[in-house]
Amino acid sequence: MAENGSKQRIGLYPGTFDPVTNGHIDIIARSARLMHKLVIGVAINTGKGPLFSLEERVELVQAEIQEIASRNGTVIEVLPFQGLLIDFARKLGACMIVRGLRAVSDFDYEFQMAGMNYRMAPDIETVFLMASERHQFIASRLVKEVAALGGDISSFVPSLTLDRTLKRIGRT
Question: Which residues are catalytic?
Fold first, then answer.
């Protein structure tokens, strides 16, 4: 229970986080202020050809969010998951799913997913947060591509993720 006797608000922010970007960190920090507990759900998604293993992605997200959790006092947990997002949200007792939007192109897909999720679980709300202006163009897919082609990704990802990404693609 929350301090005022109301039900604790648990939110779920799902994604593949391959790699975790500054845009992800921004959404995590902002959404953590809206709830008592935030679970970062790291999806098993081999179809996207991940650069990092599931375990590595969970570890990187955990490492990169430590400052956020300590700064605002919200409990933030990082857990892997597979299967239907709604089933995972129910298992956690989540009342909201957080989705970040970068551009209009994201909205169409996210709108459809929110509708499907609502049909399956009308008691779980989907909340959209617009990416901050400085992060609107950052996508994990593009970060990997820029890094593989020798570009500078230091302004797109946190420092530990930068080091690990460069090592993974053979750059130091």
Answer: 24, 48, 102, 140
- The domain 10-168 having CATH identifier 3.40.50.620: the answer here is yes
Cβ-based neighbours of 51, under 8 Å, separated by 6 or more: 18, 19, 144, 165, 168, 169
Domain locations in the chain as residue ranges: 10-168
CA distance linking residue 124 with residue 127, whole number of Å: 10
**Spatial CB neighbours of 109, under 8 Å, sequence gap ≥ 6:** none
Segment 69-75 shows an average pLDDT of 81
Beta strands in 131-169 (DSSP E): none
52 within 8 A of 21, measured Cβ to Cβ: no
- What 8-state DSSP symbol labels residue 170? T
**Angle at the Cα of 164 from the Cα atoms of 136 and 23, rounded to 5 degrees:** 15
The pTM for the full model equals 0.90
Report the phi/psi class of residue 127: left, alpha or beta, with left for phi > 0 and alpha for psi in -120 to 50. Answer: beta
Please write the tens of the pLDDT for every residue from 131-163. Answer: 888 888 888 989 999 999 999 999 999 999 999
